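During the no-cost extension, the postdoctoral fellow (Dr. R.K.) reprocessed legacy sequence entries with the updated structure-token encoder. One reprocessed record is reproduced below for audit purposes.
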Amino acid sequence: MTALTRTLLALALAAPALLAQAPAAAQADTASASATAAATATIGRIKSLTGGVSIDRAGQALPALIGMALQQGDRLRTGPDGGVGITLADDSLLTAGPSSQLLISRFAFNPTTYDGALDATLSRGSLHVVSGLIARKKPEAISFKARTVVLGVRGTEFIIDLGAEPP
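Re-encoded structure tokens follow.
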């Protein structure tokens, strides 16, 4: 038996085991890709913008632009002359006023069932909220945190005003 024949025979014998491992490896790759996609999925878009507005994403400060996609974990910062209007995937409308800082820490939404959740934190400034489909189906799935309070959504529209500077 030649060396080439032995190599081919070894490959032929190993092929079923390698093929059996392929689906598991593909599933692991798919799970990893799904986790990455969830972390970078578009949760909403910037619809209006005035003055200085930036987005902190993955350690980078990005200039905000109309139409820009937002992701879970984005922190929006408006300058003293800034303001930003956001429409989330469930049709919630968030409008941050001047000198505001808003972190969208969690957003999930199923457009078929309207199930989902929204957790956001306003560190300073003001925020006008018009709730969307998640709050209409399950109001307790929405929460907004501020320096000294956590707000649960029970209505459809409200304003949080913390002022420009934290204490």
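Residues 6 and 12 are 10 Å apart (CA to CA). The chain has a mean pLDDT of 81. The remaining legacy entries will be reprocessed before the final report is submitted.
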